[in-house]
Amino acid sequence: MTNPVFELKAQEYNEKLAEALKQVVEIKEPEWAQYVKSGPSKERPIEDPDFWHKRTASMLRQIYKRGVIGVSRFRTKYGSKKNRGYTPEEFRRASGKIIRNILQQTDAAGFTEIAKDIRGVRSKKPGRELTAKGKIETEWYGTLHYWRCYCCGKTMVQQNDCELEIATIDL
Q1: Which runs of consecutive H residues, i.e. helices, occur in the chain?
Q2: Which residues pair with 148 in a beta bridge?
Q3: pLDDT digits over 31-90, tens only?
Q4: 85 in helix, strand or coil?
Q5: 10-21 vs 51-66: helix crossing angle, rounded to 10
Q6: CA–CA separation, 30 and 98 (whole Å)
Q7: Is the pLDDT of residue 12 over 50?
Q8: CA nearest to 128, candidates 60, 82, 75, 58
Q9: Among 26, 25, 47, which Cα is nearest to 38's?
Q10: Main-chain dihedrals φ then ψ at residue 136, nearest 5 degrees
């Protein structure tokens, strides 16, 4: 069996996973996101209406590939060079609030969790890692069946004893 994370091109994979993530209730763009830039190197706010889901898909793919990764590394990855006029360009890291909010939403959805202590790392919070549900979602983007619980409102991959509304995601 082939793994689409490594088999498909990054852009193609991220677009498919972003479409699947639109069905997850916990992952939604905050209202302030349409007014902010994605970093200090940008001149204008984000214009792509699907930016939030595409960035979430990209971050889940990176966590899948690298294992444990934190906000600081994501800021460096998504940063770019700032045009400073006549002076030479300088690298600027991306906005941390967007990255933190996406990670908090993926934690709430059950795709990621704060990594436990890692040998050789001093930090109390070394970064995020994928849960079993997150690995399944990144490998099988959009082919899972989700249930929404009427009692607690959580989105689940497996069926519980609660009354359920079935919502299938097929790409």
Answers
A1: 4-7, 10-21, 51-66, 71-77, 96-109, 132-139
A2: 155, 165
A3: 999 999 999 999 999 999 999 999 999 999 999 999 899 999 999 999 999 999 999 999
A4: coil
A5: 120
A6: 10
A7: yes
A8: 60
A9: 47
A10: -60, -45
